[in-house]
Backbone:
């Protein structure tokens, strides 16, 4: 096994890891990483898994003696303890689609060819590559688990490549749409009302670009008393019903303009929120359940606003996309936008710059100011 530095045609540096899964003649795994430290971490984890596998009591059976359902059920018992409820719920959804059809198959039938044929059939059904990858995950997750726990001596799913998935479409509002929505919800939840906090959520999302969990994790101590900023220290993890570190595990600072700061402080004062409570909380003074909140967003506020204005629907998470694109369109440099939004890579931020560019190009097609030469005015250039 080795780590090899490779320079791509685009002059990018990549780190390739090549590993035999079970010694000479076994399946070779190939992995590519952007950073050497990531490649080294993968190797370290691989070594650890091999040691754990060697130390486990031997319960090995032939692949022909175990069914996919048998191994999937064995994995589920561990998953309920080792993984978050959200992850288990997602995997159960895939389990319920795959196991009724393939559960009776013995593992010797789940070959590289079988999985590739499965991918092709799913593509012919018109499924997106990202959906097919998730469906394949039940095979790889279950078999990886069985191999680690020494129930099988060979992992037939080792090294199965994923299909290249298209990045999800990023939607966002133009500035006029964002302002229109805030005006609408400002009227629906007027200042001083018990539901004013709903408007403040929208105002926060559109002015800071925070992720939903980060909004639900805000508490009074995060709002700077000296500057117009908010420190993002945590997020509320709905699946775990607990506060966790932000994505990337690092605190960051986001802008908080005077209007937003005033609204947040009014909310804190009016509801007598202390430093250990979240700014946005339900009647039991617990953090907001995001699933319940987005029902309000979609079914009440967004739907009524669209009926009134004929503007475009978007997801709640797209409020973050809107804030990001507006920061760029207002001339904020990409490095600053990256820090505000908490992107791990500048390439993610640059995606929004391309979106803003397309938006500007669309304006150029439909918007033109010119002068009539016949009336003696110069033509614009």
Residues:
């Amino acid at each position: 096994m080795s780590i090899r530095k490779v320079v791509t045609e685009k002059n990018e540096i990549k780190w390739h890891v090549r590993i035999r899964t079970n010694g000479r003649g076994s399946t070779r795994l190939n992995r590519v990483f952007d950073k050497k430290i990531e490649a080294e971490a993968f190797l370290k984890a691989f070594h650890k898994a091999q040691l754990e596998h060697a130390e486990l009591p031997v319960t090995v059976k032939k692949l022909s003696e175990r069914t996919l359902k048998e191994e999937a059920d064995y994995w589920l018992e561990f998953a309920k303890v080792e993984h978050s409820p959200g992850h288990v719920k997602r995997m159960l959804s895939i389990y319920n689609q795959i196991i009724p059809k393939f559960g009776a198959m013995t593992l010797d039938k789940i070959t590289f060819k079988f999985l590739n044929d499965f991918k092709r059939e799913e593509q012919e059904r018109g499924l997106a590559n990202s959906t097919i990858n998730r469906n394949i995950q039940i095979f790889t997750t279950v078999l990886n688990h069985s191999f680690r726990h020494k129930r099988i001596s060979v992992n037939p799913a080792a090294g199965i490549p994923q299909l290249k998935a298209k990045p999800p479409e990023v939607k966002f509002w133009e500035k006029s749409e964002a302002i229109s929505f805030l005006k609408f919800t400002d009227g629906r939840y007027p200042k001083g009302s018990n539901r004013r906090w709903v408007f403040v959520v929208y105002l926060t999302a559109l002015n800071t670009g925070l992720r939903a969990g980060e909004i639900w994790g805000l508490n009074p101590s995060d709002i700077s008393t000296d500057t117009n900023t908010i420190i993002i220290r945590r997020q509320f993890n709905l699946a775990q019903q607990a506060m966790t570190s932000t994505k990337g595990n690092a605190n960051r600072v986001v802008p908080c303009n005077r209007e937003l700061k005033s609204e947040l402080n009014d909310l804190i004062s009016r509801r007598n929120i202390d430093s250990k409570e979240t700014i946005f909380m339900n009647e039991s003074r617990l953090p907001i359940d995001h699933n319940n909140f987005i029902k309000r967003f979609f079914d009440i506020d967004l739907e009524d606003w669209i009926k009134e204005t004929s503007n475009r629907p978007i997801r709640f998470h797209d409020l973050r996309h809107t804030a990001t694109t507006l920061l760029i369109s207002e001339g904020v440099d990409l490095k600053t936008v990256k820090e505000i939004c908490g992107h791990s890579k500048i390439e993610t931020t640059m995606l929004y710059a391309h979106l803003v560019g397309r938006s500007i190009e669309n304006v150029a097609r439909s918007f033109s100011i010119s002068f009539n030469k016949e009336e003696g005015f110069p033509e614009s250039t």
